[in-house]
From TrEMBL:
SUPFAM superfamilies cross-referenced by the UniProt entry: Tetraspanin (SSF48652)
Pfam family, one: Tetraspanin
Family: Belongs to the tetraspanin (TM4SF) family.
Lineage, highest ranks first: Eukaryota, Metazoa, Chordata, Craniata, Vertebrata
Name under which the protein is recorded: Tetraspanin
Domain of life: Eukaryota
Transmembrane segments: 69-96, 123-146, 153-177
Keyword match NADP: no
Main localization category: membrane
Organism: Dissostichus mawsoni (Antarctic cod)
UniProt keyword terms in alphabetical order: Glycoprotein, Lysosome, Membrane, Transmembrane, Transmembrane helix
Record membrane topology: Multi-pass membrane protein
Gene Ontology cellular-component terms listed: lysosomal membrane; plasma membrane
């Protein structure tokens, strides 16, 4: 009858739906099992025991980054000042060598200016050399700190170390060898004529510089000392160069 056919069709539809649902569940279980089957055991172990980030380590790393940033900022600031000072000194040196007349007129307009300022005209090349050196040092320090370049920072520290050693060596040579050279002034004793010391005390030779009125200049004495010990100086220079390399 019609009712029996309808009931039979409903049963078939229900059976079909149950079969489709069973197949879908079987497929999901199969995919999960296959995933677990092909997943390495070590990976599952690491996933189950994934380490959590420690707040103490985070604070330590943040403190390190803050200290590094502070040092980097100080490096940039100080080397920026050195760069600007080098540019100013270089500019003054070039000005002295190019237009010394305007320098004299400018110094003459300064009230109560010390007489030693006129000696600025004699150190033009020295100012240019010092300014160029400070420019290079400041540039390497700033750019090396900003870009974090190991090569530039290494070159910066090497130049600073060489300058420091040269300054210490020069001071030691002046203090130790001045009494031994028996010299007075740069070229000779006439360097002190019309000097502030001469005008103030009426003496030609400062006693602390020229004991016994030695009239030979220190520059000729140093030149003579270098000429007599050329081989030793060259050997020491080559040894230092080999050590640096």
């Amino acid at each position: 009858t019609y009712n029996q056919q309808t009931a039979f069709q409903k049963k078939q539809k229900k059976s079909l739906r149950e079969a489709v649902s069973y197949l879908a569940e079987s497929q999901e279980v199969g995919d999960t099992e296959s995933t677990l089957w092909f997943t390495p055991i070590n990976s599952l172990h690491h996933q189950s025991e994934r380490p959590t980030s420690s707040p103490v380590k985070g604070r330590k790393s943040a403190a390190k980054m803050g200290c590094f940033g502070f040092l980097k900022a100080m490096m940039v600031v100080f080397n920026g000042i050195i760069f600007l000072a080098g540019a100013a000194i270089l500019g003054v040196g070039i000005w002295v060598k190019v237009d010394s007349g305007s320098i004299l007129s400018f110094l003459g307009k300064i009230e109560n200016a010390p007489a030693e300022l006129s000696q600025l005209l004699n150190v033009g090349y020295l100012l240019i050399a010092i300014g160029a050196l400070l420019l290079v040092i400041g540039f390497l320090g700033c750019c090396g700190a900003v870009k974090e370049s190991k090569c530039m920072l290494l070159l910066f520290f090497v130049i600073v170390l060489v300058v420091f050693i040269a300054e210490v060596a020069g001071a030691v040579v002046i203090l130790v060898f001045r009494p031994l050279l028996h010299c007075c002034g740069f070229y000779n004793s006439s360097d002190f004529v019309d000097s502030p010391y001469y005008q103030s005390y009426g003496k030609l030779f400062p006693p602390q510089c020229c004991p016994g009125l030695m009239i030979t200049g220190c520059f000729p004495k140093i030149k003579q000392l270098i000429d007599e010990n050329t081989s030793v100086i060259v050997g020491v220079a080559l040894g230092i160069a080999a050590l640096e390399v």
